[in-house]
Design goal:
This protein is mainly alpha-helical and 507 residues long. It is 72% helix and 1% strand.
Length: 507
């Protein structure tokens, strides 16, 4: 059998919850990738300049970071987590439906800020719940989770593409002057770095001709089953007011025996867990306090060092994803390669397609290969690929090959790091908030820093930054391995994996 029987039984008991969390992450991916391709049409809709409309990226990303942090405060209650997921996924559908009616860039930025809060909550809560359910078996389920965000991010630009304007969507006397390089401008737009489009001047006044509204309404409809699925899960667990539906009375004889065994095992550990949870409640939402354990006071440095190393590695690797996808087009059309605009436009699509493919491949691989080994392979491959790109900087085939391999190696870094870190910290679930927030910060900040370096030092520095960051991430991972060996692991975090959101977990 490909899966062992215990894991398969655990998955079956958590089937509805798991699929629901996966589907919610599809909403996250659907919302995170549509803004880039549709930005020029949204510029026309809001009659704003390119510099102004690119700040919509910032409002979304900043509030995503805020939402990621806030999502960690809901981990004590499963009912509250599911309610937040329901509101967040429903908000994304509402955002898609409202965007076509935003006629001012400030209103659009506010709407995208609300979407960012919803996305941040989804990011943290979905990762955290899967880690809590599957614990030492969470790696493969996290890989599937992040495949769904990649699938959503791949789908939304495909939905939007038929509705994008082929010519400047604001018709004026200067329209023809800006229409010839419209596709080039669209590919050159980089989130969080508006300076790279400052030399393009497009008309602000005139008749708006765009059909992009239909793309948003289609995405709103596609996303609508997700909040419905979350609501159904809440109903099945008796969390809907007036609908007390407990599945405990419907258990089969085998499941009832498992529940009885589970209650016995939990009673043996009830006292220390109750005391620990009580101390956690005194933390007033401070995330790192929830990981503090009396048995870890003998090595407080390793406890915090693991958080810091893991967070900084994800800061750099997720930052590299944003940096590479944002600047690879500009690098390709510049000297020495000087690719045609249409040819260079395939590079970001190839990169994201390989990330999605890599996450799909990582699902079966992560079942056989532990997260630590996967991370080592990914980081080694990432550094080697950047070195290959640097050495073959004058080769067009080398650029396409390197882009494909980089997407494959970067694809599974985040879920593997999350599973590995939670394993080191005995699956308390609190590291998830730190890692999700650090990854989001890296994607936003590194684009600004690398973009500034490219503007001052030239396109060659694009690959130099990639080599430097990848080697630094690999070096920090070696340091993380040392802290892993030094950090004591108590038995309290290694309770048997009994599955299926038990009542004690909901408290």
């Amino acid at each position: 059998m490909w899966w062992d029987e215990n894991l398969l039984a655990l998955f079956k008991r958590n089937l509805q919850s798991t699929i629901t969390y996966w589907s919610v992450f599809f909403s996250f991916g659907l919302c995170i990738a549509f803004l880039g391709p549709t930005l020029l049409d949204l510029r026309c809709q809001t009659h704003s300049s390119l510099q102004d409309i690119t700040w919509v990226f910032f409002s979304q990303q900043f509030c995503l970071l805020v939402g990621s942090t806030l999502g960690g405060t809901f981990k004590k209650s499963l009912k509250l987590c599911l309610f937040i997921l329901f509101i967040s996924s429903l908000t994304i559908s509402l955002v898609f439906a409202i965007i076509p009616f935003c006629k001012h860039v400030g209103v659009l930025a506010l709407v995208m800020a609300v979407a960012g809060l919803a996305m941040g909550n989804i990011d943290t809560i979905s990762n955290m719940q899967l880690v809590k359910i599957y614990q030492q078996d969470s790696a493969v389920f996290l890989q599937v989770l992040h495949f769904f965000v990649g699938f959503g991010a791949l789908l939304s630009p495909l939905i939007a593409d038929p509705f994008l304007s082929d010519t400047n969507c604001i018709q004026s006397n200067t329209t023809l002057n800006g229409s010839s390089n419209l596709e080039h401008i669209r590919n050159s737009i980089v989130p969080h770095h508006p300076g790279n489009v400052s030399h393009y001047v497009l008309p602000l006044e005139g008749q708006v001709l765009t059909n992009v509204s239909y793309a948003f309404w289609i995405m709103a409809a596609i996303n609508l089953p997700v909040p419905i699925a979350v609501f159904v899960l809440m109903y099945q667990k008796g969390m809907v007011s007036g609908c007390d539906r407990r599945h405990g009375s419907l258990l089969s004889a085998d499941e009832l025996a498992m529940e009885t065994q589970k209650e016995t095992e939990m009673n043996d550990e009830k006292k220390p867990e109750t005391e620990e949870e009580h101390s956690h409640e005194q933390g007033n939402g401070v995330h790192l306090l929830c990981c503090q354990n009396k048995k870890n006071w003998n090595a407080p440095c390793t406890f915090f060092a693991i958080h810091v190393c893991s967070a900084v590695i994800l800061f750099m690797t997720d930052g590299l994803v944003g940096e590479y996808s944002g600047f690879i087009y500009s690098y390709a059309v510049d000297e020495p390669l000087s690719l045609a605009h249409k040819t260079a436009g395939y590079l970001p699509s190839l990169f994201w397609a390989c990330i999605t493919l890599g996450r799909l491949i990582s699902i079966p691989v992560s079942y056989k290969v532990p997260p630590r080994s996967m991370l080592f392979i990914n980081l080694i491959g990432m550094a080697a690929t950047f070195m290959f790109l640097l050495l073959s900087q004058n080769s067009v085939p080398g650029l396409f090959i390197g882009t494909a391999f980089l997407g494959l190696f970067l694809s599974s870094v985040f879920p593997s790091m999350l599973a590995y870190t939670e394993d080191m910290l005995n699956y308390k679930g609190c590291a998830t908030t730190v890692l999700v927030t650090a990854a989001g910060m890296g994607e936003m900040i590194l684009q600004i820093l690398v973009g500034t370096v490219i503007q001052t030092q030239g396109s060659y520095s694009f690959l130099v930054c990639g080599v430097s960051l990848s080697i630094l991430a690999l070096s920090l991972f070696v340091v993380l391995l040392v802290f892993d060996n030094l950090h004591p692991r108590g038995l309290e975090g290694k309770t048997p994996n009994l599955g299926s959101d038990p009542d004690w977990y909901q408290q």
